[in-house]
Automatic annotation (TrEMBL):
Superkingdom assignment: Archaea
Keyword Transmembrane helix carried by entry: yes
Residues passing through the membrane, by range: 28-48, 75-95, 100-119, 139-159
UniProt keyword annotation of Phosphoprotein present: no
Protein name per UniProt: HPP family protein
Domain HPP transmembrane region: 23-162
Species of the source: Stygiolobus caldivivus
Length: 167
């Protein structure tokens, strides 16, 4: 038992030594990205009274911290994940499946589908969960979901391509 624990600790230490942490410049870019994205979304969602959708976008913007570089495949995966999750939320709402239990079932379903098609982005399941709780309509897919994810990914793209060079 002791040798297994020591071996596990040695492997963990090796993994930590080989991990690459973001540079200070990338950390600053990711923090500015989060502040800018969420500030824009606070204004948009306040004006349209859809503030309930802010948590998943805050989580998505925060996921940029360990690796803030913009990548097209990752952005498409995030956008697709949000669209699928919001579609499931709308479907549950259309069939009058509301409440905490149905929101949980819808979240499980959307995460399972996203994992199966290999586009999972865990914060996106909140779009399903919150959509079912808020009894959303079909426009929910366009706004606030698509609007929000485009803002987060757009700000990340601009910060990575243009902002990082100026820091």
């Amino acid at each position: 038992m002791f040798s297994l624990t020591v071996l596990t600790l040695l492997e963990f230490n090796k993994d930590i030594c080989t991990m690459k942490f973001p540079s200070k410049k990338k950390k600053v870019v990711s923090i500015i990205n989060l502040i800018t994205s969420i500030s824009i979304l606070v204004v948009i969602t306040s004006l349209t009274r859809t503030e309930f959708i802010l948590p998943p976008f805050l989580a998505t913007a925060a996921t940029k911290y360990p690796d803030p570089d913009w990548r097209r495949p990752r952005s498409f995966s995030i956008i697709t994940s949000y669209v699928i999750c919001s579609l499931i939320g709308v479907a549950f709402s259309v069939f009058h499946l509301y409440g905490l239990i149905f929101a949980s079932v819808a979240a499980f379903l959307s995460f399972t589908i996203c994992v199966i098609i290999d586009i999972e982005h865990p914060p996106a399941i909140l779009a399903t969960f919150l959509g079912v709780l808020e009894k959303v309509g079909p426009l929910y897919i366009l706004h606030p979901v698509l609007t929000g994810v485009v803002v987060v990914e757009g700000v990340n793209y601009i910060m990575t391509k243009y902002g990082e060079q100026r820091l």
